[in-house]
Amino acid sequence: MTAESTVASPGQQRTSQDAASVLGPRGTAAGRRTGGGRGSRRPRPAVRASLWLVDGGAALPAVLVLPVPHRSSLVIVLLALGVIGMNRRAMLYDAFVVPGVLDELPAVCGRIAVGWAAVVLLSPLRSLPPAVLVAAVAVHCLAACAGREAVHGLRRRGLRRRPCPALVVGPVAVARRVSAALLRQPGCGVRPVGLVADDPDVLGDADDQLGLPVLTTAQDARRAVIQNGVGTVLVVGAATRVEKAAVLRGLAAYGCALWELDADPPSYGLGGRRHEVGQLAGFSRRLLGAGGGRHHGSVGKRALDVVLSGSLLVLAGPVLLVCALVLRVMDGPGVVFRQERIGKDGRPFTMLKLRTHRPASDHEAATRWSVANEQDMSPFCHFLRRTSLDELLQLWNVFRGDMSLVGPRPERPYFVAKFSQAHPGYPARHRMRTGITGLAQIQGLRGDTSIEDRCRYDNAYIDNWSLWQDVCILLRTAAQFVRPTGS
Q: Biased composition, Polar residues: where in the chain (predicted)?
């Protein structure tokens, strides 16, 4: 069974990163920048310059693959300038985002291939054998991806050590909820240091619960930016952009990046989908003024599910057979566990697992949250849960179409009803087929973790779905396949 849990209120989740008051002495000039403080500005120009250098320099080893007569500094310059130009147009030098190498791989490699195609068509390189050109493109892609990952890796480590200070702008209740979620996810690289709102009296104990002061004037917000080196402003609430337009313009003038966060579950009716450009701690976000959007390709997703699940069933067949035989010998008959779960559009289906625990009754199986720590489980059953081998039978659910390889984890009807009442975003998870793994799972939200955080990540995954994102999640799941906690 899946172990689920709700979390304590933000007031019960005190964090060691509680921020000291950002309000300095009243004599401090609001317009004067200070150089000190823990939250110093991120070197965004240096980041862009590093990425430009990486993308330009990656052309050099690629050209060295070519035969000596075809090596030319002109080719290097054309490739470097062409790739940098295309990457800049595609916002691949956005210093406010720190992607992973897998996230960038299609965009980076695709533009390198286009650059090479243009150079080959306009130069004598078209006389070279295709194998040589393919090798040169592969080396170029490898060098660019490795270099960009090195730059992003340094930034990620730096943000983990010193998260970027941020102000959260919006109604106090919503801003506090967003801040609490960010503080629960220190690895996201953003640390709230203050809330900008007009109604501090609504929840006057904000300092006691989160250690974050409520800033009510533009002067206080500017002072927070100066004293804490704030580089990010998170705008929450549908009406905040209009109500706080003057404050936001002032913060933007101080060099802050303004991100709009969907703190509440979006409406998926006749109004259509909103355009997002990523997520932060499971909140869908977009840079104010940015457009875009993603197209759901259910045919491609289903094709990936059928091909991979079918192949994995064949490969995992001997493992499943051995596990079933050991369970039969050690625990008796009934090695397959069947349980009703809720899938896409709220439709129930029967999910399959290897049996690792025998509930006392059907009622217990349907309403008990977790059996992961039951003392009566055999060592072999503990092994199956710890390695998630008991989940392999769900590949058959994927092959049949009940589930997908990647998607929100399915839950029992009892808990779907319970969580849907407690968390407004929970029902929206069922817009897509449930999955064996998902964005929430690779973020560590497994077992006894926050349902609020989990459904937020699930909805962010659906909002920003792409086939490549599925591939990335599957690769990251494979890297984490053996882990100390069960599902």
A: 1-19
Going by C-beta distance under 8 Å and a sequence separation of 6 or more, which residues neighbour residue 339? 1, 350, 351, 353, 365, 366, 412
Give 53-94 pLDDT, tens digit per residue: 999 999 999 999 999 888 888 888 999 999 999 998 887 887
**Helix H or strand E segment including 141:** helix 130-161
d(CA 264, CA 261): 9
C-alpha 39/C-alpha 162 separation (Å) is 7
Q: How far apart are CA 273 and CA 280, in angstroms?
A: 18
pLDDT digits (tens, 9 = 90+) for 90-119: 878 876 678 888 888 999 999 999 999 999
Q: Which CATH superfamily is domain 163-287 in?
A: NAD(P)-binding Rossmann-like Domain (3.40.50.720)
Delimit the domains of the chain by residue range. 44-159, 163-287, 298-479
DSSP 8-state symbol, 167: E
Q: Which residues of 313-338 are buried (b: 16+ CB within 10 A; e: fewer)?
A: beebeeebeebeebbeeebeeebebe
Amino acid at 274: R
| Residue 447: other Cβ atoms inside 10 A | 17
d(CA 132, CA 87): 25
Q: What distance in Å separates the CA atoms of residue 167 and residue 231, rounded to the nearest whole number?
A: 9
pLDDT band at residue 200 using 50, 70 and 90 as cut-offs = low
Map residue 333 onto helix, strand or coil: coil
Residue 78 near residue 85 (C-beta atoms within 8 A): no
271 against 75, higher pLDDT: 75
Cβ atoms within 10 A of the Cβ of 277, count? Answer: 19
Q: For tokens 């801040």, what's the residue?
A: 179
Confidence of residue 295 (pLDDT cuts 50, 70, 90): very low
Helices 130-161 & 101-121 angle (0-180, nearest 10): 150
Cβ contacts of residue 485 below 8 Å, gap of 6+? 372, 386, 446, 447
Alpha carbons 156 and 159: distance in angstroms, whole number? 5
Dist. CA 2–CA 487, nearest whole Å: 6
To 10 degrees, the CA torsion angle through 139, 142, 145, 150?
-110
The position carrying tokens 């709009």 is: 260
User: Distance between CA atoms of 103 and 126, rounded to whole angstroms?
Assistant: 31
Chain centre to alpha carbon of residue 264: 17
167 close to 215: Cβ distance less than 8 angstroms: yes
CA angle centred on 116, ends 115 and 119, rounded to 5°: 90
Report helix, strand or coil for 296: coil
Tokens representing residue 361 in the block: 């009754």
Separation between Cα atoms, residue 175 and residue 194, nearest integer Å: 9
CA-closest candidate to residue 10, choices 162, 166, 173, 168: 173
